[in-house]
Design brief:
3-stranded antiparallel β-sheet; alpha+beta; rod-shaped
Length: 188
């Protein structure tokens, strides 16, 4: 029989212990990466939901200004239901999660996925560490204005450098608005 000192000096099986320990750590990091990726995706989707809610609420200013507040709340609730995130519907209370500026025709909404409201984002692998869900809250603001009343679309539109005129009444000929302002018709 060997003594305990000889057993401690024996290195057989040491690699197996190192590999097992490393595998546990690597699986932990992989699980963390999956959960973080899932939650980042959920956050992005939640922002899209908040954006949709804000745009729908702001449309109330154009459609029915006298009843804009109630119509905005109704539309925001409707769009919260139509845009779930990972199968979870946003919690939205118009009294606390919506701000309206009637004179500026602006609205700010908050889409909530919170534990205390009963709709948090679930986790997958973090449950091993006791983290079963995560709170997500997104905010979006929208302003309403009629498209035919905008004076300038900058930076959303590129200036038109072509002066589209019909030289000689021929719709197939156009004039380029160049520096010398020549009226030389060109085809195209």
């Amino acid at each position: 029989m060997r003594g305990w000192k000889a057993t401690l000096k024996d290195e057989r099986g040491a690699v197996l212990v190192l590999v097992a320990g490393t595998m546990v750590v690597m699986l932990g990091f992989a699980a963390l990466a999956v959960d973080v990726g899932f939650l980042m995706n959920a956050r992005t989707e939640a922002q899209r939901t908040a954006d949709a809610m804000a745009l729908a609420a702001a449309s109330a200013f154009i459609d029915d200004m006298p009843n804009a507040e109630s119509l905005a709340a109704s539309r925001a609730l409707d769009y919260a239901a139509k845009n779930p995130v990972q199968g979870v519907t946003a919690s939205f209370n118009p009294a606390t999660d919506m701000q309206i500026w009637l004179d500026e025709k602006k609205v700010r909404v908050t889409a909530n996925f919170l534990r205390d409201r009963g709709n948090p984002m679930p986790t997958m692998f973090a449950r091993v560490f006791g983290i079963t869900d995560v709170n997500v809250r997104t905010i979006a603001t929208a302003e309403a204005s009629r498209a035919d009343q905008i004076g300038c679309l900058t930076p959303w539109a590129v200036g038109d450098m072509w002066e589209d005129t019909w030289a000689g009444g021929d719709p197939g000929k156009y004039d380029y608005d160049d520096d010398d302002k020549s009226n030389t018709p060109t085809t195209g």
